[in-house]
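Entry type: protein chain
Record version: 2
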Amino acid sequence: MFNISNGVSPLGLKIWIDLDNTPHVPFFIPIIRELERRGHVVVLTARDAFQVCELADKKGLSYVKVGRHYGKRKLWKLYGLFRRSSQLWLFYLRRKPALGLSHGSRSLSLICNFLGIPSIVIFDYEHARTIPLGRPRWLIAPEALSGKIAGKTKRIRYYRGIKEDVYAPEFKPDPSLLEELGIRPDDIVVTVRPPASEAHYRNPESEKLLRELMAKIVRTPGLRTVLLPRHHAQGEAFKKSYPEWFADNKTIIPPRAVDGLNLLWYSDLVISGGGTMNREAAALGIPVYSIFRGKTGAVDEMLEKEGRLILIRTVEEIESKIRFVRRDRSRLPDNRARFALEDIVNYIEEIIGLERERHHRGRSTTS
């Protein structure tokens, strides 16, 4: 069901973007703007999980809140997937979009397949799991993943750079963040992102590395840590289990969602158990270390080879590799346009054209 009339012009289309996780908010903002500039209508749904809605509100996005997070138990995850897909179906009935677009939203891919409308999933981690009924029609991935996708398909396109290149050029520093967080000018600022304890790729080794890292930070003078929990419950658990981390205000958790790029820019180094924040730091040229111990993705391997990311694989490497050193913050961010945004939007339009042809061929064979 490719409804080519769902647009504002003969070339425009109504495109449905689902914001499933916090990093999707800054990623899609330039894409939305460019799609609208080219004559398309964009409608948004957002999952009430992590800081998705809070950040979307802060960025002024108009969206419909649909579904929530169902925790780390596999059965609840599966239940949540199908329940949210059914909730998205109600949104479809009201808005009738012609194309689904996400950065890995399984719920959106599932309901698009059920409805018979094409879906595009942009992704940058080749080891992420999906379900057979939730496989999207089209895929868009970084060039680093070329040749690494199991069950190669002709319906995949590769863009230059990394996904963080889509929005990093738009970054403008705002030094008021330091005062807001109570960070002193002489502090060495370490931003730490814990591993995702509820993700399917969870590895207890990442959590062990986090504990050893925080122990080292606590005993090192002159450091201030900004800890960014995945959600409120994780932050409360850290405060309860590890009060020594927070003694004398050594570690702070921001009371509300903050602009991630701005925080990274005013950090001296970044250490993360996830993917997006590591790559955001790399895109900004900030020293960054990864304590992620799931399967290493091709993008991280590329960044490691380029010297833009240091992978920490053992407790010993926390001592031998991580350097708590003040960096030069006097330089300006690199705001030159990069290829990723142009490539991705061009591929979306190419796919729209191919789906139109497919739709017309189907009509001609039945007439």
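Comment: The first strand starts at residue 14 and ends at 19.
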